[in-house]
Amino acid sequence: MRPIAQLTPDQCRSLAGVVFDIDDTLTDGGQLTDVAYRALWDLAREALPLVAVTGRPLGWCDVLARQWPIAAAVGENGGGWVFRRPPGVAEGYFDAPVVRAQQQQRLRQLQEEACAAIPGLRLASDQRHRRVDLAFDVAEETRLPAEDLDRLLHLIGAAGARALVSSVHAHAYFGAHDKASGVVRAVAEALGRDLDGERSRWLFVGDSGNDAAAFAYFPLSAGVGNVRAHLTRLPVAPAFVADEERGRGFAAIVATVLRQRR
């Protein structure tokens, strides 16, 4: 990883868009700070398409797509997305309705098995807003011991589901999506653009294990400072890294991009 200050003017001037994670990338302690939100608006004023991609629920993405200066919000680690379609918003999903119904049935069974096997295991408090995945709280409102997290990940894998661990949740889902493939589909539907053909001109900013697919997909990527604590879960590290953590790190990355575009 190189310091974010080493981003070149050519890389910044040729940007076609910015994709960013939310938890512990844009937020600090679960809250969106003024410095991070200002940075988001600073990017928007550059007329760059912005895409949020998060492990948070699609129910939240409906609000983000309506109220933030973004083209689309991709939720549940790529399982679906919400985008502006005036006068309101529209939504899309990675899998067809019949497939999602089957997946939900299997997730309910997995939830019962996991909660029975691991005393004290709790669902994420935002689970009621989810439409695709199952999220367990590992470090948001409670802290799951490392040995129990390992056991949970084993149970998820044994059920044939995929597992992703963010800075706050452990996610279980059935399907082939991830943050990268979900963003590709969302950009095609929301913007009519082929991200595969221009991905070298998009910047991704993230921080943790569930950003692994996006760090691998986008050649131009940056991590906020706290990404250093999650490098063991990232087969491909971000190309650049900020010294500052969380929202302040996001603001520092944005400030560098804007300075180098001048």
What layout of secondary structure does this protein have?
Layout: E1 2-3, H1 9-13, E2 17-20, E3 27-28, E4 31-32, H2 34-44, E5 50-53, H3 58-67, E6 72-75, E7 80-85, E8 88-93, H4 97-117, E9 134-137, H5 146-158, E10 162-165, E11 169-173, H6 179-191, H7 195-198, E12 202-206, H8 212-217, E13 220-223, E14 240-241, H9 246-261
Parallel strand pairs: 1-14, 2-5, 2-12, 5-6, 12-13, 13-14
Antiparallel strand pairs: 3-4, 6-7, 7-8, 9-11, 10-11
Kindly describe this structure.
The chain is of the alpha/beta class and 262 residues long. The chain folds into two domains: 178 residues, Rossmann fold (3-Layer(aba) Sandwich); 77 residues, Hypothetical Protein Ta0175, Chain: A, domain 2 (Alpha-Beta Complex), CATH 3.90.1070.10. It has nine helices and 14 strands. The strands form three sheets. The protein has a nine-stranded mixed β-sheet with strand order 1-14-13-12-2-5-6-7-8, sandwiched between helices. A three-stranded antiparallel β-sheet has the order 9-11-10. Strand 3 and strand 4 form a beta hairpin. It starts with a strand and ends with a helix. The mean pLDDT is 96.
